[in-house]
Amino acid sequence: MEYQEAKDKFISTWGSLGSLWGINKAMAQIQALLFISTKPLSMEEIMEDLKISRGNTSMNLRQLMDWGIVTKTLVAGERKEFFTTEKDVQELARIIAVERSRREIKPVVKVLNDVSSITDDGTAKTKELIKQTKALHELTETMDVMINKLVNQKQNWITKSLLKLFK
Amino acid sequence: MEYQEAKDKFISTWGSLGSLWGINKAMAQIQALLFISTKPLSMEEIMEDLKISRGNTSMNLRQLMDWGIVTKTLVAGERKEFFTTEKDVQELARIIAVERSRREIKPVVKVLNDVSSITDDGTAKTKELIKQTKALHELTETMDVMINKLVNQKQNWITKSLLKLFK
DNA sequence: TTAAACTTTCAATAATTACTGAAAGTTTAA
DNA sequence: TTAAACTTTCAGTAATTATTGAAAGTTTAA
């Protein structure tokens, strides 16, 4: 396997993986492309490399910037905009964890809390609903706390956590 | 908010959440319904409650069984099949974690390993591809190991882990 | 056996989600 | 200013994914 094949394989795998963790294919592919690029890329270069339209590129770059994963970079002497992604995997993982917590987990915790707080009318089904959603609420919240604490350890957090868990 | 409203809210929230962790809406809704039910439910009851077709119900129940989250239960004196879901949230979380590791993480680790093992032809771009995919490989593998070890602690694993991490 | 009760399969279709491309908008250099 | 260089927006369309429903398949009781 030589460069081009390996590159394509990486980008397409990362792309289809994206949908699993809640971002779309193009978004994940753009990030992947930037991740292995040796220099900032322009919209033009991204479109050409991934064979996607200008509109699509623009929209997905914006989303990546909203996530805080990609940033605009100025290149001396160039008028157009260039883009780079966070290159440190641990930092990348931190950003993603925090964003997912904010976007996905927090809203769910809220709903679970609301649902589990309905008044107990004494019926078995109400009791079961309360009991189960309470358990889910507690679990989800614990996991969210865990993620947010882990992530605050910054430097080398994943390895550090692994060590802590199994020493 | 009384029972029916709370129930609907829970089922629809869980349903839309499903797509975030890689299962479809109907599948997540069926699981949610079983999760708060006080007794095993038949296909008929599930269809009616969620207003989905027989075919859809059948296919998604199968998937839930493939995941190991839902099981068939026999009800005395009844010919048709009844279904129940794992009721313990911690056990549920364990099953999901293990399955996701197997279905999603493991294949990615393999691709990353393949890609990062290409021969270094000395060019900057090849060096960058190798370096970055190696870093990603290492991280992904560490996280996978972490998940699998955590999950083997069985009883009360989430709370235990939280304590370990922050004592 | 057979036929009723039930479940599964799958082609057709609906619903959702992603993508394009051209027009509108913005910025910058002259 | 203005016009070239560039980016964003968004209605239309394409691609993907989920759902239906009816036919085929299976099981069980008589």
UniProtKB/TrEMBL annotation, chains A, B:
Asked if the keyword Phosphoprotein belongs to this entry, the reply reads no
The HTH marR-type domain covers which part of the protein? 28-79
Kindly give the Pfam families that the UniProt entry links to this protein.
Answer: MarR_2 (PF12802)
Q: Molecular function (GO) terms listed?
A: DNA binding; DNA-binding transcription factor activity
The alphabetical list of record keywords is:
DNA-binding, Transcription, Transcription regulation
Query: InterPro entries, from UniProt?
Result: ArsR-like_HTH (IPR011991), HTH-GbsR_regulator (IPR052362), HTH_MarR-typ (IPR000835), MJ1563 (IPR026282), WH-like_DNA-bd_sf (IPR036388), WH_DNA-bd_sf (IPR036390)
This protein's record includes keyword DNA-binding: yes
- Family per record: Belongs to the GbsR family.
What the entry lists under PANTHER family is as follows:
HTH-TYPE TRANSCRIPTIONAL REGULATOR MJ1563-RELATED
| UniProt-recorded name of the protein | HTH-type transcriptional regulator
Q: Name the species this protein comes from.
A: Olleya namhaensis
